[in-house]
Amino acid sequence: MRFSDQNEIENRFKRRAKQRRRDITWNLLTAVVLMLTIFLVGFYLVLFSNPYVAFNPFPPPTMPVLATALPGTATPLRLPPTWTPTVPPTEEPPLPYTPISATTPAESTSTASPLPLFTDEPVNQNLPYAIEGEPAAMANTVFHPGEGCDWQGVAGRVVDLQGRPMVGVVVKLTGLYGGRTIDMTTLSGGAAAWYGASGYEFILGDKPISSNAMLAVQLVDQALMPLSNRVIFHTYETCDKNLILINFKQVR
Q1: Is 244 left (phi over 0), alpha (psi -120 to 50) or beta?
Q2: Which of helix, strand or coil describes residue 123?
Q3: CB under 8 Å to 183, separation ≥6 — which residues?
Q4: Angle at the Cα of 137 (from 212 to 96), degrees rounded to 5?
Q5: What structural domains does the chain harbor?
Q6: If you ran DSSP here, which 8-state letter would residue 70 be given?
Q7: Is the CB of residue 176 less than 8 Å from the CB of residue 205?
Q8: What's the pTM?
Q9: Which residue in 173, 154, 170, 131 sits closest to 241, CA to CA?
Q10: pLDDT tens digits, one per residue of 51-80
Q11: What are phi and psi of 245, to 5 degrees?
């Protein structure tokens, strides 16, 4: 073998090794480009299917809430084909309040009251709370020793099945008192200083007056749906009965 042939063989091996290295480099670059292409295709597919994904650098603006979804939005009134406008009746001034007395039945039927006839209300046995005992009339000094006779109100407490205080239950008072309409709410626990941890209290006025089935107290939830039946009670014009105590207890 000639020396020149030996050199030629070595040069060929060197060229082949260099070519293989170049081929490996290009193969690696091709694989990287192919992987990046697959990644970009998948990325854009995800963006097109859901442009609100967290990794979208340019998410579309959030659509505003439609005005029709807002509470209290008026709904257009659809009039019937034969609709005839009617003039609303003229409001009359409220009648002066006259307490109902057992000795004056005629006055009982003529006195205007915003409440329905309570005695005809059906009793719902499926409500979770009920009155505990009966409404008790007593002097307010039992719970307010420093107060005098110039006070009148209704109060009580709310307990669970085991007799433990239930704080935060909504108590609603409605009716007619002293010639004015009563619509008041409070929470059990608001009068804990006088009636226990779940005590509540409504102050009606600064002078005891008499009324017959003109006021009602009831437990309701946050949506004002009933949790108990309405408890109808009377008020008295004597100082020893100027506080009406009404307790509630969970029954189911």
Answers
A1: beta
A2: coil
A3: 172, 173, 174
A4: 30
A5: 1-59 (no CATH), 126-250 (2.60.40.10)
A6: S
A7: no
A8: 0.54
A9: 154
A10: 766 777 777 665 544 434 444 444 444 545
A11: -100, 120
